[in-house]
Amino acid sequence: MNAERMIDRIEKLAQCSRSVRGVTRLAFTKESEQANHLVDGWMKEAGMKVRRDALNNIIGRYEGMDPDAPVLLIGSHLDSVAEAGKYDGILGVIAGIEVVHAMHENGIVTKNPIEVIGFCDEEGTRFHTTLLGSRAIVGSLSEEDLEARDHEGVTVAEAMQAIGMNPDQYGRAARDPQSILGYLELHIEQGPVLWEKGQSCGAVAGIAGQSRFEFKVEGQAGHAGTVPLSMRRDALVGAAEMIQAVERIALEYESVVATVGKLAVLPGASNVIPGVVEGTLDVRSLHDETKRNALLAIIEEFHRIAHRRGLVCHIRRVMDSPAVVCTSQYVQTIETVLAQRGMKPLRLVSGAGHDAMALALITDIGMIFVRCKEGVSHHPDEYASPEDILESATVLMNVALRLTT
Ligand SMILES: [Zn+2]
Prior knowledge:
Blueprint: H1 3-14, H2 30-45, E1 49-52, E2 58-62, E3 71-77, H3 90-105, E4 114-119, H4 132-138, H5 156-162, E5 180-188, H6 193-197, E6 201-207, E7 209-218, E8 222-223, H7 235-252, E9 256-259, E10 263-266, E11 272-273, E12 276-285, H8 288-308, E13 312-321, E14 324-325, H9 328-340, E15 347-350, H10 355-359, E16 365-370, H11 386-404
Parallel strand pairs: 3-4, 3-5, 5-16, 6-15
Antiparallel strand pairs: 1-2, 2-4, 6-14, 6-16, 7-12, 7-13, 8-11, 9-12, 10-12
Helix pairs in contact: 1-3, 1-11, 3-11, 7-8, 9-11
The chain binds zinc ion.
Protein name: Allantoate amidohydrolase
Cofactor: Mn(2+)
Subunit structure: Homodimer.
């Protein structure tokens, strides 16, 4: 495995960017085509046959001893958020190419073929539709998805046409589940756990399910000087107590994280008692049942607090996605390799979504998380060290070998 080659490629891909600050590479753009062109060349150099599927996912195939055996997929995404770091997504594609490159250079041919995939759009930055590439591959993409528009009003279908693709063919990207052995994804952690634990990489237990709510607390606005405290129905003081309750209740449930990330105070003047507060609640867990129980407790407490303070609380669910658990055999294989290389068998929960979520619909999945500096991601300061990149790619290689031979 060649760390320098991987770093060099990460830097080159970072140049395929619309923004000067950080990396901005959206799906079906000049920049994504530049990135695909580079990846195409590196895949060929690594001994792979390269093709683009009907959604512009780039796929390199390294033939196995048995070409009819189901294929092991290794992938991640090539698109980015706005002003992103250099490693999110990219690292998994570059590490996958490096694994095959090392096999090719050392004359290693596995029983199963291996395909490395760079997905065209995971983040959903441009069209607000996440996992376009991987959902096409598992056959869960619909015509409706292709009608999503970017902020200039361009649809996915139009953007595909603009780079010479035929959107009507999107169904052809779907793969036969029988032809797939499993899916591996290496990705930066995007959180601080590995950084805190002082370890290069870890196994991912699964991707947390997520529920998002909007809530509204209604009280009574009034003069900040003339209404006595005992006679107030202050929506913000009530909301503050509710937010405290969110943290307290979430802490009672293992593996639940809960966040109130947005708050609007109305009418919003220094001399007016807050009459209305609108906010968001985001609750995640790897265990759907636990998440549900924590949510029920939180909602009950919201209403209890509102009632006691003479407030009215409305709460509305706007999004709910179930957790995706990684295949236990894959998690164990990753842990075995970690132990072999002198690391602890750390199991992490992903609080962020990944292409593996889509792949889980049709095949076994395993994920390796790589330490990133201070857990910073979706930011130009995102950083993974050459040592950690080399170590995690080596783990990926060993896991791939164990699964295919
Ligand atoms: Zn990512």
